[in-house]
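Journal club side-thread
Mid-discussion, someone asked how the predicted structure for our own chain would compare to the paper's figures. Pasting it here so we can look after the session.
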Amino acid sequence: MTRPAEGGLKLDAYLPYRLSVASNAVSGLIARAYQDRFGLTIPQWRLVCVLAEDGPRTQAQLVARTVMDKVTVSRAAQGLARRRFVERSDHHADGRSHVLALTEEGRALQPHKPSGRWPRPPARSSGGSPRRTAGGSRRPPGAARRASSPRN
């Protein structure tokens, strides 16, 4: 096994990596709440969120807005359509394209409650409570250790 060169990249100290991990963790927590409550996958949840906020969109627009690939968006849209959460209609200007819109059932899944708050993620099953920062906000596991470790 080779060791990284002295002064080489250390992922835990690399901000873009840490932001990516944090983003995936937050998205996963919210998506898990929607999976448990509505049976939605992460890509389906993202499409519902975008359609709820932006209104009807083509799949190409959804690809750009969600930063998911075309196949993922297509499969998520097909799954939502099978469950009648979205409906497809012909695009008025482009006969090859379709517009996706939330149905009444899909609008009932809107991620925003009238208060503008997201649903609470499911309770942690690992036991113990999440760590809190001095300001009272939640901190991901291991954050205290990383925050107190010396930086290079």
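Post-session note: The radius of gyration is 20 Å.
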